[in-house]
Prior knowledge:
Elements: H1 8-15, H2 24-38, H3 47-62, H4 78-100, H5 122-142, H6 149-152, H7 155-188, H8 199-230, H9 249-252
Amino acid sequence: MTRVAPSPAFFRVSTARRRPARPRAHARASTDDDDDRETTIDFSVDVQKEFERGVKFGLEEIRPRFYPNAVSSADRGLPIADALVATSAQVALAAVTLALGRWRPSWLVAAPALGARGFAYLPSALAHGSKLAAVWTVGGLAGRAYERKAFDGTFEEAIKRTVQGGCFAAGLLILLSQAEARARFAQEGLGEPVLGNSPEGDAILIRAVVELFVDIASEATALVTWRAIRWNTSPTDPMSLLPDASLDDDERR
């Protein structure tokens, strides 16, 4: 029987030495090096100059928003009107909640000294509404919602500044809700306010989130509706009847 010699091509393929695979550890190290290069901080920026720029922006742009002249002379009573609207929204919410009788926020508590059924909840509703009104006032100042353009400019500008102030107020309200939840946990002896530690703590946190959402939604609806009504109404300042009435207070000065 004749022995057949293997094909040269097959011989070369079958006996060729394979290139060793790249170690996985080395591959992971290379990937980590790439990530480090991507997240490297650029120290070529002048940090001191940027810090001074931020301080200057805060002193010249942010701080004047909380001065008394941040409220336009065309409507000095607008912050009071906003506060009344914000407080009335919570009174209306309390009335609807009591009428439905299914869910009641934790702040809606009856006053023992008042005998009337519905009137007994009025003090707690006014107190909660006053808190939200104070938060909105700070947000309105931060969002420049009391300048002339916020109510006598374009409709888009009026809604834009109302939303800006509402976003700032919502941030403050979130911080207040966190502080209240932490105080409640400390009072009940539940430890840190972390979801999943205990059923009692979870109930407190879930209730706080629901009430926070209801507060933001109710105040946003009331204030945006009110600012839409207030937009471009009859001016209360006689100076606004002059030819330069379209100018803002800052532009007049």
